[in-house]
């Protein structure tokens, strides 16, 4: 399928060809470059995201915590708060948001409205990611059967790379059983991995 992208995909160039058109343009050269390459087979999916950033120099901890929660509720994929030092050695923070392109305007407005920032920087990035899905898994602890949401990450071939139980589900089980959270995590991960790999016919 034909696809237009802003970046070259990861590949080993095999041949490069150039061609010049007959018409002259003032803005850009009328030249076409074609690269024939062999893609690297790392089996990672790719997508394109937008990173929003702004410096916060006078926002309180309560304000920062509030805007973080609101951005995640309104569609941000991730939000980070990075401590920095600015001019005159003043402590400051960078608010960094990862989101889809469709949310740039709405999340930028939230940042400005909630923090008092005078502007928001943004840039587009391409990233490599694993395919992820959350699936329910029934596990048994102390004779009790309980369902746990498990995030399963796979590469493009379908191989399981990581299995991670949902924190809230594991915390609830730890409270019910009286076991340490760390121990419950180990039990859930072991049982989930066994069930998921068995479902794919692996031993």
Question: In a nutshell, what does this entry contain?
Answer:
This protein has 203 residues and is an alpha+beta fold.
Detailed description of the structure:
The chain is of the alpha+beta class and 203 residues long. It contains four helices and nine strands; from the N terminus they run E-E-E-H-E-E-H-E-E-E-E-H-H. The chain has helices at 61-73, 104-115, 167-177, 181-199, and strands at 11-20, 31-39, 45-56, 78-85, 91-99, 121-129, 131-141, 144-154, 160-165. The strands form three sheets. The protein has a four-stranded antiparallel beta sheet with strand order 4-5-3-6, covered by helices on one side. A three-stranded antiparallel beta sheet has the order 7-8-9. A two-stranded antiparallel ribbon has the order 1-2. A hairpin with a 5-residue loop joins strand 4 and strand 5. Helix 1 runs antiparallel to helix 2 and helix 3 crosses helix 4 (181-199). The chain is flat. The two termini are 36 Å apart.
Radius of gyration: 24 Å
* Cα end-to-end separation: 36 Å
Number of strands: 9
Structural category = alpha+beta
Sequence of secondary-structure elements: EEEHEEHEEEEHH
Strand content: 35-45%
* Helix residue percentage: 25-40%
Please mark out the parts with pLDDT under 50 across 5 or more consecutive residues, or reply none. Answer: none
Count of individual helical segments: 4
User: What about the largest sheet?
Assistant: 4 strands, antiparallel
Give the overall shape, derived from the CA principal axes. Answer: flat
Q: Strand order across the biggest sheet?
A: 4-5-3-6
The average pLDDT is 87
């Amino acid at each position: 399928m034909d696809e237009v992208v802003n970046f070259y995909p990861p590949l080993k160039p095999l041949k490069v060809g150039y061609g010049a058109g007959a018409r002259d343009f003032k803005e850009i050269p009328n030249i076409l470059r074609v690269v024939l390459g062999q893609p690297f087979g790392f089996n990672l999916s790719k997508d394109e995201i937008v990173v929003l950033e702004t410096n916060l120099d006078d926002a309180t901890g309560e304000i920062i915590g509030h805007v973080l929660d609101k951005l995640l509720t309104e569609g941000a994929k991730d939000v980070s708060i990075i401590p920095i030092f600015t001019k005159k050695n003043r402590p400051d923070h960078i608010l960094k948001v990862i989101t889809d392109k469709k949310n740039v305007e709405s999340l930028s407005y939230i940042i400005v409205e909630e923090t008092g920032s005078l502007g928001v920087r943004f840039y587009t990035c391409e990233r490599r990611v694993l395919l992820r899905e959350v699936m329910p898994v029934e596990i048994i602890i102390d004779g009790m059967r309980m369902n746990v949401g498990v995030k399963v990450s796979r590469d493009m071939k379908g191989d399981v790379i990581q299995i991670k139980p949902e924190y809230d589900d594991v915390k609830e089980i730890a409270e019910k059983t009286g076991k340490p959270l760390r121990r419950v995590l180990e039990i859930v991960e072991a049982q989930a991995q066994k069930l998921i790999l068995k479902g794919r016919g692996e031993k």
